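Hi R.,

As promised on Friday, here is the backbone we talked about, encoded as structure tokens. Could you run it through your design pipeline when you get a chance and send me back a sequence?
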């Protein structure tokens, strides 16, 4: 037998094993300490993530309401579809292809893209966000019919703007993550977005939810609601008439408009054209813009599209600055009257120009206005007279009032991107002369209407705002006011006495002066027209372009609402604010003042020519219908030999003058469209009226009641060449033949 290991060898082996065992125990203890003590939180989180599934529960974004609680931006319930690739057998190519093809067909997506998602090694692959419930139901049916694994649907929300482009520059829009990117959506995102909730459930090794295991539910907290000062009806009329004028006058750079409460600073309407649809804010839908892109291809199309996209997103009312032209004379006359530097007894001579330092500055009326009173100088919008007034004020005092009217600072409106005005680098005698009639400095349309509000409301400069209050929807559906926004008065700029006098003088501008075309029957409208040259554009291109505008308010004796209309670069022949901007303001005011509850006060002359709404006489006997027409002092014509009225022209609800003719059809006779509407543009009112009535049609004249019969027709509806039936009402818009072409 061989010798066994010696005692010393056994002892050494035992010691080594003991040391190794102790070291192993110490290492194990260290690792246990690492996992269970030092890095406990980390590994606990990893274990939980492997054993649980987190599903984010989207909070409903708050609603944006108009002042009348009409929803302008809402969160609609939609669903998001995703795949759990770890629950799909990737070796089953037929299964993966079926999933990919089925989802692609339903969602209108690329099949290969979805197939690649089935091959991923994770628990979550987004397929498509915010699909409508009808589409989600199709996916559920597809999954149920084919018993498919790994396809999941979760609730989500989608921002929706029910009135499309209405007030888009105020509302703004949200991104794919439901975060506001512009307008109210962006500025008040903190209030609107709410807080997302969470659903935590157990899952197995392949990521499938275990229905009978534990579950934790953290409810989402819905966002708060924002109530605007905007009135959706006023906004509609503002956009409607601006768009019609923009198209008719072919305004190359768009249009802008504002309606503001002069006493509170509340903006009732704000429009900027071209505009966009916040539901599809990246898509250009404006017809004039699309027409300008026709014929472009490749890089040129892409570059121009990007340029126009930025243009439609811009809010011209607060972002773009312009030279206000003669509308600024409201500010000039206010400061001069306040300082006692002019009075109603002052007179001014205008030979058609005035020399300031070494410069001859022309009046818009080349032959001059001759000898005129202060009131007449304002009515005539006489540049030399206002240069004289500005000189009396002087540079220091002029700048003081310019600043006090808020024109050197942002208005502070609760919208993003507001620009500041651009003032002279040097302000001497010549600069004072041009500034007195609104040239060679720039302000925003919002700054202009805010200054006009101060001139008309008793002299108080008010901060304009578009948000009225923040509310939270309660369980019973009521709204609890969380925060209110009150009127902010910055300072007193002029006295109430001066303001009252300014209102009186500006009312005369509309009744007998350059603003005649803003006249509205039954209402006392005051205001000022303006036509300003875009000097910067001319210096760059050598082409003269203009901004035509009107700024005013009503009622003149107790102002409530101010209005501003701006047409940028009209190219259809007319450029003067008195001719093309004032009528737009008149149309808007005639629609919104009755709606806003401002009661008309008609003169006897206005009552005699008041338009009326036609009543329906259909199904009445001829005897009864004609008796009613005689009582209302309408003329009438009967076509056919029946006893009962079967049709009529104009149709019920049509607006027409009281001296018009209504055609009654009987015995099965119907209106025949066989009369071609003549071209009336350029005719005098009397000449156009004769042509219309001789053709068997009715005429409705829209324009200043004080305009003479020699005033010219500047537009008509229906358009020339339209074929209509006898008795159809042709509406013609006139301009006064004198005093409206003011710069």
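Update: got your reply. Pasting your designed sequence below so it's all in one thread:
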């Amino acid at each position: 037998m061989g010798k066994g290991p010696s005692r010393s060898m056994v002892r050494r082996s035992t010691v080594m094993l003991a040391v190794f065992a102790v070291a192993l125990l110490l290492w194990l203890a260290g690792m246990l300490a690492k996992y269970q003590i030092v890095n406990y939180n980390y590994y606990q989180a990893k274990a939980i993530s492997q054993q649980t599934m987190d599903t984010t529960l989207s909070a409903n974004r708050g609603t944006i309401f108009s002042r009348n609680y009409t929803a302008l931006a809402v969160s609609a319930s939609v669903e998001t579809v995703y795949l759990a690739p770890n629950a799909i057998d990737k070796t089953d190519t037929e299964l993966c292809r079926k999933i990919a093809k089925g989802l692609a067909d339903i969602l209108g997506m690329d099949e290969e893209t979805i197939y690649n998602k089935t091959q991923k090694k994770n628990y979550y692959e987004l397929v498509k966000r915010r699909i409508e419930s009808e589409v989600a139901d199709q996916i559920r049916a597809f999954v149920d019919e084919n018993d498919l694994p790994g396809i999941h649907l979760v609730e989500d929300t989608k921002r929706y703007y029910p009135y499309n482009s209405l007030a888009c520059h105020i509302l703004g829009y949200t991104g794919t993550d439901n975060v506001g990117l512009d307008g109210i959506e962006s500025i008040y995102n903190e209030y609107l977005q709410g807080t997302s909730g969470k659903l935590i459930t157990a899952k197995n090794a392949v990521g499938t939810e275990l229905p009978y295991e534990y579950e934790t539910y953290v409810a989402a907290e819905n966002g708060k609601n924002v109530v605007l000062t905007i009135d959706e009806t006023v906004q509609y009329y503002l956009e409607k008439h601006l768009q019609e004028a923009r198209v008719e006058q072919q305004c190359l750079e768009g249009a802008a408009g504002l309606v503001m409460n002069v006493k509170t600073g509340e903006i009732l309407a704000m429009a900027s054209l071209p505009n966009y649809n916040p539901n599809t804010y990246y898509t250009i839908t404006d017809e004039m813009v699309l027409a300008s892109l026709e014929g472009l291809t490749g890089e040129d199309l892409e570059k121009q599209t990007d340029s126009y996209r930025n243009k439609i997103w811009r809010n011209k009312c607060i972002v773009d600055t312009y030279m206000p032209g003669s509308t600024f004379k409201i500010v000039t006359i206010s400061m001069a009257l306040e300082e006692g530097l002019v009075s109603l007894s002052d007179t001014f001579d205008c030979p058609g120009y005035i020399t300031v330092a070494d410069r001859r500055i022309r009046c818009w009326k080349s032959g001059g206005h001759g000898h005129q009173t202060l009131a007449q100088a304002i009515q005539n919008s006489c540049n030399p007279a206002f240069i004289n007034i500005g000189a009396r004020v002087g540079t220091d005092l002029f700048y003081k009032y310019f600043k006090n009217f808020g024109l050197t600072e942002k208005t502070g409106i609760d919208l993003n991107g507001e620009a500041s005005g651009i003032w002279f680098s040097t302000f001497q005698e010549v600069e004072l002369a041009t500034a007195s009639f609104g040239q060679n400095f720039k302000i925003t349309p919002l700054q202009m209407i805010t200054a006009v509000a101060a001139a008309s409301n008793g002299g108080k400069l008010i901060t304009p705002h578009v948000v009225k209050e923040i509310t939270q929807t309660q369980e019973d559906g009521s709204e609890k006011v969380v925060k209110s926004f009150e009127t902010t008065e910055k300072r007193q700029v002029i006295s109430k006495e001066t303001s009252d006098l300014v209102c009186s003088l500006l009312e005369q501008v509309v009744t007998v002066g350059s603003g005649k075309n803003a006249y509205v029957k039954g209402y006392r409208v005051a205001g000022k027209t303006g036509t300003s040259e875009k000097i910067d554009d001319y210096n760059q291109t050598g082409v003269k372009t203009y901004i035509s505008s009107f700024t005013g308010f009503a009622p003149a004796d107790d102002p409530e609402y101010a209005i501003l209309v701006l047409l940028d670069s009209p190219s259809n022949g007319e450029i003067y604010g008195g001719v093309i901007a004032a009528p737009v303001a008149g149309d808007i005011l005639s629609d919104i003042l009755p709606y806003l509850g401002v009661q008309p006060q008609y003169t006897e002359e206005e009552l005699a020519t008041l338009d009326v709404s036609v009543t329906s006489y259909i199904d009445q006997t001829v005897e009864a219908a004609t008796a009613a027409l005689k009582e209302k002092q309408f003329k009438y014509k009967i076509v056919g030999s029946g006893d009962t009225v079967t049709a009529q022209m104009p149709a019920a609800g049509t607006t027409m003058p009281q001296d018009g003719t209504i055609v009654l059809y009987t015995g099965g006779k119907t209106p025949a469209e066989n009369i071609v509407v003549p071209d009336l543009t350029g005719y005098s009112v009397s000449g156009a009226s004769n042509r219309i009535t001789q053709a068997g049609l009715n005429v409705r004249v829209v324009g200043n009641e004080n305009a003479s019969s020699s005033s010219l027709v500047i537009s008509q509806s229906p358009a020339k060449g339209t074929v209509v039936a006898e008795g159809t009402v042709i509406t013609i818009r006139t301009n006064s033949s004198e005093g409206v072409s003011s710069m």
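One thing I noticed while checking it: The longest strand covers residues 71-83.

Thanks again,
M.
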